[in-house]
Design brief:
The protein is α+β, with helices and mostly antiparallel strands and 389 residues long. The chain has 3 domains: 80 residues, Butyryl-Coa Dehydrogenase, subunit A, domain 1 (Orthogonal Bundle); 107 residues, Beta Barrel (Butyryl-CoA Dehydrogenase, subunit A, domain 2); 139 residues, Up-down Bundle (Butyryl-CoA Dehydrogenase, subunit A, domain 3). 47% of the residues lie in helices and 15% in strands. It has a 4-stranded mixed beta sheet. The chain has a 4-stranded antiparallel beta sheet with strand order 2-3-7-6, with no helix packed on it. Strands 9-10 form a two-stranded antiparallel sheet. Strand 2 and strand 3 form a beta hairpin. Helix 4 packs across helix 6 and helix 9 packs antiparallel against helix 11. The structure holds flavin-adenine dinucleotide. The site of flavin-adenine dinucleotide has 18 residues, from strand 1, strand 3 and helix 11.
Length: 389
């Protein structure tokens, strides 16, 4: 087993790092302001022009035909630089899903705009009464000529206000067993009949939205997979969502490094915080855990590079990494003391409010992409072959 990156991959890492040092100086947790969003969009367009955004995709779809390891190196460097990928849904979920499940016409139409950062995709899966039990979804689509007519409501749709397209799960056969009456549609967010309503979360931001569909017409040609087989298309998308965890590991490593730096530079009672054996010990423990998270995420990339579909392995990585994100944010809050509670913008805020934001934001990470309880069920049934409860 050789865990090292090749010389060529390391050279690419340096190229990406140097590029980002020049092109990105902001942090990715403040995409709320239009200035910040526009700056991030500009960066993403440059990445798209270089072919880096979806570099593992074939050239005809806007990629470079590069290896998954190169893609991982790119993701890690983006996360370390706190540089955001605005269209994570397109890059990590819709694109790979279409590669497996879409028609050639759909690939040619939808993949290049993702690779060139011309669109933002959002995810329309969850509903008020369908989260963990996603197959209970009720948003209805009825055939009318060459179109489906969609009526219903989605919720928790991240960045719906920025979305150009939504990948949507709808019920097309209410009489069939619930997993077998669902279809998967690609819907233009500017279609007449779509409206959105913000949900303000505890960071004070409106990152999530309710999305309403009132007789929205969607061409049948925008259906991915067979009618009533959308559940199986969604399983592919969800596996890719959990597999994108590598970016979060790199981001979390950066947060931990910021805490190490803080502990080195901050003195209490005449000595650096890092000299306190309890603090040093805790930072060492979290460093071990970050290494574990990285190996788990590298395993998934290694599987993808061999054409294997990550399954319970993605659930293992998602569960471990997201719970580690919470542990680091929690420890950070204790380490920073009372100033750690101040948000970015306050002149007294420690680490520019990074930990304050992480502490609130990471509450959601064990819920999205399927809650960690559900991931544990997947690990038990698919990984350990235990019976369903
Ligand atoms: C930050 C964030 C962003 C999100 N973005 C999107 C998005 O863009 N698009 C989208 O469609 N959705 C999105 N979601 C929604 C997310 O997918 C759901 O919140 C998640 O699937 C859980 O569903 P729920 O909230 O309805 O909770 P419920 O399903 O009601 O679960 C409540 C609790 O019960 C537990 N539970 C439920 N069933 C079981 C079981 N069988 N075994 C053990 N425990 C169980 C759950 O783990 C949870 O703790 C987002 C959520 C968050 C937090």
């Amino acid at each position: 087993m050789d865990f090292r990156f090749s010389e060529e991959e390391e050279a690419f890492r340096k190229e990406v790092r140097d590029f980002l040092r020049k092109e990105w100086t902001l942090a990715d947790y403040d995409l709320d302001t239009p200035e910040h969003w526009n700056a991030a969009k500009e960066l993403e367009k440059k990445l798209g022009a270089k072919g880096w955004l979806c570099m593992a995709w074939p050239k005809e779809y806007g990629g470079l035909g590069a290896s998954h390891m190169h893609q991982l190196v790119f993701q890690e460097e983006m996360a370390s630089a706190h540089a955001p990928i605005l269209d994570g849904q397109g890059v990590y979920m819709v694109g790979p899903c279409l590669m497996f499940q879409g028609t050639e016409e759909q690939r040619q139409r939808f993949l290049p705009p993702i690779a060139h950062s011309e669109v933002v995709w959002v995810q329309g899966f969850s509903e008020p009464n369908a989260g963990s039990d996603l197959a209970s979804l009720q948003t209805r689509a009825v055939v009318d000529g060459d179109d489906y007519v969609v009526n219903g409501q989605k919720t928790w749709t991240t960045r719906a206000h920025r979305g150009d397209w939504i990948h949507l799960m709808v019920r097309t056969d209410p009489k069939a067993p619930k997993h077998r009456g669902i279809s998967y549609l690609l819907v233009d967010m500017r279609s007449p009949g779509i409206s959105i309503n913000p949900i303000v979360n505890m960071t004070g931001r409106a990152d999530y939205y309710e999305v309403y569909f009132d007789s929205v017409r969607v061409p049948k040609s925008n259906r991915v997979g067979q009618e009533n087989q959308g559940w199986y298309v969604a399983l592919t998308t969800l596996a890719f969502e959990r597999s994108a965890i590598g970016a979060y590991v790199a981001q979390t490593r950066q947060v931990l490094q910021d805490l190490v730096q803080f502990a080195r530079e901050t003195k209490r009672n005449g000595q650096s915080l890092i000299e306190d054996p309890l603090i040093g010990g805790k930072l060492a423990e979290l460093t071990i855990e970050i290494e574990v998270a990285q190996l788990l995420s590298h395993r998934i990339v290694w599987m993808a590079s061999r054409g294997l579909m990550p399954n319970y392995e993605a659930s293992v990585a998602k569960t471990f990494t997201t719970e580690l994100q919470q542990r680091i944010a929690n420890f950070g809050m204790h380490l920073l003391g009372l100033y750690g509670q101040l948000a970015e913008g306050s002149k007294w805020a420690a680490l520019e409010g990074l930990i304050q934001f992480q502490y609130l934001w990471t509450v959601g990470v064990t819920i999205y992409a399927g809650s960690n309880e559900i991931q544990r069920n997947i690990i038990a049934t698919r990984g350990l072959d235990l019976p369903r409860g």
